[in-house]
Amino acid sequence: VLLPAIQGYNAERLAERMRVTVEERLQVHDHRSDQQFPVTISVGVVVAESVARTEKAERLIAAGEDAIDRAKLAGGNRVERAALSTPQAD
C-alpha cells in the first residue's frame, strides 16, 4: 500500500490497525480436523520523509521486504519500520 502524503507515525498506526483487524477477523477452517486457525500478517512500513523523483522503486521495495523479514524473524504477526538509507552518489 502506497501512502504518499502520510506521516510515519500515522503509517505505522494504520499498519498496526490492519494487523489487528486481520488477526481478529480472519480464520482458516481445516476441514479434515474441523479446527479453526487464526490468520496473521507481518507488515513492513517504509517511511521516507522526502523521496526524490529519481528514487528507485526497487530501493523502497527492498527496504519494505527487509522490514517484513525482521518482523517474521521476531516471531511474526508484527509491524516493523524500515530504515531507508541515503543513497550513495554514483
Short description:
The protein has 90 residues and is an alpha+beta fold. 39% of the residues lie in helices and 18% in strands. 13% of the residues are buried.
**Please, what is the average pLDDT?**
87
Helix count, DSSP H or I runs of 4 or more residues: 2
Globular, elongated, flat, extended or rod-shaped: what is the shape? elongated
Intertermini distance: 29 Å
Helix content: 25-40%
The main pleated sheet reads as:
2 strands, antiparallel
Evaluate the radius of gyration.
16 Å
SSE order in H/E notation? HEEEHE
- What is the multimeric organization of the chains shown? single chain
By DSSP, the count of extended strands is 4
Question: How are the strands of the largest sheet arranged?
Answer: 1-2
Contiguous low-pLDDT stretches (5 residues minimum) are: none
Q: β content, as a range?
A: 15-25%
Q: Structural class of the helices, strands and pairings?
A: alpha+beta
